[in-house]
Design a protein that fits this description.
The protein has six helices and nine strands. Helix 2 packs antiparallel against helix 4. By secondary structure, the protein is an alpha/beta fold.
């Protein structure tokens, strides 16, 4: 891969989507486009490349022409495994890249300045990791991670660690506050959330 500035985005699509009826949540349609389309559209201008983290047959995402990487840890251990999958892809395919930014694919309103503000928060806090925050809450899945933490993350997952907050707290994490924007991390977990997201997109 040609050297380019910026991180690689890993779009986390490996969840089981039980609350919305199972299946591939990223392929649910919102305002005529899949949730994956919305995530790709929001992130593409901010990163050098995009990788989809999903388990099972990768061909179901073939239309997007994006690399699809499965969890490197069995039994759906959660989003940390997706972060590790993205780091491993970067090591193999973009070794000059220092960071990955992780985002869920069920969050259709990701900010256009997400990466820039995560990078700024990390610099200001002099810590290796930054996550997003809004409305008095942290969004630990929306985060910027140094690829150099891949070995420790792999060892932590092998030892049974599953919570993102536990891993990020070990290394130090800054919070980029997005409370100046109207719920940019609204996520679609249930059918009624999909309907609400459609209303928000329509400006209702």
């Amino acid at each position: 891969m040609t050297a380019e500035p910026g991180p690689v985005a890993v779009l986390l699509a490996g969840g089981l989507a039980r609350r919305i009826g199972g299946g591939d949540k990223p392929l649910r349609v919102l305002a005529g486009r899949t949730l994956l389309d919305h995530a790709v559209g929001r992130m593409r201008p901010q990163v050098r490349a995009i990788v989809v983290n999903a388990n099972g047959d990768p061909e179901r995402f073939a239309a997007w022409r994006l690399p699809v990487v499965a969890d490197p840890v069995p039994e759906n251990p959660g989003p940390l495994a997706g972060v590790l999958a993205g780091m491993m892809w970067v090591r193999e395919n973009a070794p000059d890249c220092a960071d990955v930014v992780s985002v869920p694919t069920d969050t259709p309103f990701l900010p256009g300045d997400l990466v820039a503000r995560l990078e700024a928060a990390r610099r200001q806090g002099s810590v290796p990791i930054a996550c997003a925050g809004s409305g008095g809450r942290r969004h630990p899945v929306v985060a910027l991670w140094p690829v150099r933490l891949a070995d420790d993350l792999a060892a932590s997952l092998a030892a049974g660690l599953r919570k993102i907050e536990d891993f990020s707290a070990r290394h130090g994490v800054a919070v980029a506050n997005f409370s100046d924007q109207p719920d940019p991390f609204f996520n679609v977990n249930r059918p009624e959330d999909l309907a609400q997201a459609a209303r928000l997109l329509a400006g209702c």
